[in-house]
Amino acid sequence: VLSIYVATKPEKALEVIGVCIDEINLLSEKGFTSEKLELYKQQLLGEIIMSQDDLDTRMNSIGTNELIFKEFRDPEAVVKQIKEITVDQMNAYFAKYFTQEPNIVILGPKQ
Q1: Residues whose CB is less than 8 angstroms from the CB of residue 66 and which lie 6 or more positions away in sequence, other chains included
Q2: Could you read off the pLDDT of 46-89 as tens digits, one per residue?
Q3: Rounded distance between C-alpha atoms, residue 79 and residue 15, angstroms
Q4: Is residue 20 within 8 Å of residue 13, measured between CB atoms?
Q5: Quick one: angle between helices 34-51 and 75-84, nearest 10?
Q6: How far apart are CA 35 and CA 47, in angstroms?
């Protein structure tokens, strides 16, 4: 499951959705480079490490692990798995799962 969260002004919503779809299509068509994958990994690892300091985020993580994976996955194990991901694995994942139209949910006031 891929989730993209974006906060924007209502009048920019369609433009932002277009940018997100363009980026996903670009990754699906051209694939990841090792440099781009390392950038994403470092960002994700930083988020995981920083989230350990926030009790609400930590509780949410534990609940998500239980619901999705049916087990507790400690942060060290998750970090290890992320570090082991290869460019070929990411490109295969995008080729398999990003060939269909996305589902989009927009939350905000009715205009």
Answers
A1: 72
A2: 888 877 777 887 788 788 778 887 888 788 888 899 999 999 99
A3: 34
A4: no
A5: 180
A6: 19
